[in-house]
Amino acid sequence: MKRNCECKFDGFELVRCETCLEYEKFKEGLETEPTEVAGSIMEDLLENRFYQRMKMAEDNTKAIKKTLREQLESHESKRHEFKNHNLVAKFVAKKVANTDYEGLNEFLNDIGLLVPTVKLNHKDIKKDALLLDAFSPYQLEQKYKLHIAFNKEGKLIKQYPTQSFEEQCINELIDSYSNWNSEHKRLVTQYEETKIELLACPILKKEKKVSHKYGSVSRVALDPEYNISQIYDELGADFLIRYGKPDSEKLQEFVYKGLLSQKDIDQFKQVIDIRLDFIVLTLDAEERMLSMLHNKKMIAAQNRRIG
Question: What is the DSSP letter of 236?
């Protein structure tokens, strides 16, 4: 990707110019000036309006979804199909609960599932200097994320026009959502690929921060993760039972395998509220999700009978 980019948007499609295509050389590992990689890429994202278009698509998708929810809330039905756009909008009840994590952890330890399910939250660990000192030797390899900061000129160039969708009817909102959501997903996919290249910049790796015309790009350390198996082997289960929290996705995996039941988990939860979430997804995605959930329940029931 070079300076003075002439990329343009044709409707919802980004038409890349010939000079911009040279950015692919960097992805292929060809020679690029390392001192300019991170900074120049970020400048290009702003100057060709890619970054602004992505943020505008994100904001518009959220605004449309909010307006659509407001218009559908008064309807008796909680599920609405829009087959012409292959979309479904629905309200889903979600339980909000307080969890007795220590009790759940003890139960998981008794049945041999503490280690494969529990996680340690670094934000909790670092509050106690003694805990941080005890767990530091068990930190896994450091991972990083990008932090984008803007200076005065950057704050000006990153601005984009706002749109109002409050006057649109439901069908118009669905049409707008379909367009903007697709646009947002496409641009985010490209942006995530670019972030990988930014993190790979040799100068950014060395200096941790690279400045450019519109601000800076920083390589920021993520909260560390911990080697749970090693902690269990060397420090025992007590630390993990007291300070750990089970990963909900891991718990569900063992439910589907028939090694746990939902009742086993729910006995440590106290429901304090019911939240009504609003979801918009494709009909295909809903069908896949329901089919997968049904199959997993069938497998879980079969595994429990076998066990």
Answer: -
Please, what is the end-to-end C-alpha distance for the chain in angstroms?
A: 58
C-alpha 250 chain-centroid distance: 17
Per-residue model confidence as pLDDT tens digits over 258-276: 889 999 999 999 999 999 9
Residue 16 identity (one-letter amino acid): R
Please write the tens of the pLDDT for every residue from 78-107. 999 999 999 999 999 999 999 999 999 999
- Regarding whether 151 and 30 lie in a shared domain, the answer is yes
Of 217, 285, 266, 257, nearest in space to 46 by CA:
217
Give the chain's domain count. Answer: 2
Residue 222, SS3 per DSSP: coil
pTM for the structure as a whole: 0.80
d(CA 66, CA 98): 28
Domain closes at, from 190, 218, 246: 218
In a domain, 279, yes or no: yes
d(CA 307, CA 299): 12
Indicate if 182 and 166 belong to the same structural domain. Answer: yes
